[in-house]
Task: structure prediction
Amino acid sequence: MRIAGRRITLETTGTIVVVHATVTLDRVVEACERRSTSLEDPGFCIDCGQEASQVEPDAREYRCESCGMYRVYGAEELLIMLA
Ligand SMILES: [Zn+2]
Result:
């Protein structure tokens, strides 16, 4: 079953992306806090919702190890997108 995502327009490029419904602002905020309090580099795949590691804060369109799509964004980048 495909969960409906959230459509977001990237202001920098004007691109419309669909963010997986499980990638919520709460999750992203929590990931940003984790980055500042640990050595983790969290990010999220907006296509499948999987959390990724070793992702720079401003990363965009990295390859997702779970689904193979180039839809992994850094937590801080997502925070800007979702906020
Ligand atoms: Zn994925």
